[in-house]
């Protein structure tokens, strides 16, 4: 494994197990990544053709495929070996690297851009940002999207009505994210809220499991949830059902463009 910490190993395992279902389930990921890719492409006067791009937290390689279609050479990097196998099998990158975003196995100034969509929330963000700055050439660009504090608040609130355990991961605030990217001379950030809706709780919770994002690092009770707690959770979430009959789940996403 590229990381020896149990937390990172568990993240890698969860995403590897989700490789087969990821593309079908990753609705939010495609929405966010598509917007981020458009932002990155607009930073280069001639687009992405001929550029070498490091896709950090590449997942199934969906956006590697999109960048290759635009003429880029893509290096896919991920903690999850299962995801990289999927990427390689479908030829969605020129190279695949099993590695941690906090310790990129690339030389200084070796890529034209780093692209990272909904991956660095699992990292020490300052360490990941410093590594992205190190490997990106002068005049290049880092484009990253990450989850911000306040995301999944409906899920967290419903679980708090059921028990005192942690059922969602903590996320950094906007100010902390800006500070993490302070190693760059120029940084532009924008935060947007994306709301997903679901017919029932099974679909909502499945949306997290099927993309591998259901690992909670600070959860004490990792066993099964008791029947009464589950009923309290369901009742609390059902109270949030909208007039259109759907259950909402909000993600606050920070979009970052950085460079020197």
Automatic annotation (TrEMBL):
Residues covered by the Methyltransferase type domain: 54-143
Annotated Gene3D superfamilies: Vaccinia Virus protein VP39
Any Pfam family hit: Methyltransf_11
EC number(s) from the headed UniProt entry: 2.1.1.197
Reaction(s) the record says it catalyses: malonyl-[ACP] + S-adenosyl-L-methionine = malonyl-[ACP] methyl ester + S-adenosyl-L-homocysteine
The organism's place on the tree of life at top rank: Bacteria
Segment forming the signal sequence: none
GO BP field: biotin biosynthetic process; methylation
InterPro entries from the UniProt entry: BioC, Diverse_substrate_MTase, Methyltransf_11, SAM-dependent_MTases_sf
GO MF: carboxyl-O-methyltransferase activity; malonyl-CoA methyltransferase activity; S-adenosylmethionine-dependent methyltransferase activity
Alphabetized UniProt keyword annotations: Biotin biosynthesis, Methyltransferase, S-adenosyl-L-methionine, Transferase
Pathway assigned to this chain's UniProt record: Cofactor biosynthesis; biotin biosynthesis
Family (UniProt): Belongs to the methyltransferase superfamily.
Function: Converts the free carboxyl group of a malonyl-thioester to its methyl ester by transfer of a methyl group from S-adenosyl-L-methionine (SAM). It allows to synthesize pimeloyl-ACP via the fatty acid synthetic pathway.
Protein name in UniProt: Malonyl-[acyl-carrier protein] O-methyltransferase
Organism of provenance: Neisseria dentiae
Lineage of source species: Bacteria, Pseudomonadati, Pseudomonadota, Betaproteobacteria, Neisseriales
């Amino acid at each position: 494994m590229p990381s020896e910490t149990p937390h990172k190993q568990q993240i890698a395992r969860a995403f590897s197990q989700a490789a087969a279902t990821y593309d079908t389930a990753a609705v939010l990921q495609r929405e966010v990544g598509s917007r981020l890719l458009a932002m990155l492409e607009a930073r280069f006067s001639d687009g992405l053709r001929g550029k070498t791009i490091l896709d950090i937290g590449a997942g199934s390689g969906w956006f590697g495929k999109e960048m290759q279609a635009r003429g880029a050479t893509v290096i896919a990097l991920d903690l999850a070996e299962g995801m990289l196998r999927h990427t390689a099998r479908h030829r969605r990158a020129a190279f695949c690297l099993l590695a941690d975003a906090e310790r990129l196995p690339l030389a200084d100034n070796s890529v034209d851009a780093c692209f990272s969509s909904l991956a660095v929330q699992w990292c020490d963000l300052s360490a990941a940002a410093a590594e992205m700055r190190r490997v990106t050439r002068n005049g290049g660009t880092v484009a990253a999207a990450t989850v911000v504090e306040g995301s999944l608040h409906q899920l967290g609130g419903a679980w708090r009505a059921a028990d005192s355990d942690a059922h969602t991961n903590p996320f950094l605030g906007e100010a902390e994210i800006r500070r993490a990217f302070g190693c760059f001379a120029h940084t532009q950030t924008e935060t947007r809220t994306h709301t997903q809706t679901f017919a029932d709780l099974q679909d909502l919770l499945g949306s997290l499991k099927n993309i591998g994002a259901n690992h909670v690092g600070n959860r004490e009770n990792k066993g099964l949830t008791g029947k009464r707690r589950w009923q309290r959770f369901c009742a609390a979430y059902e109270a949030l059902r909208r007039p259109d009959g759907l259950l909402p789940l909000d993600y606050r996403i920070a979009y970052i463009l950085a460079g020197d």
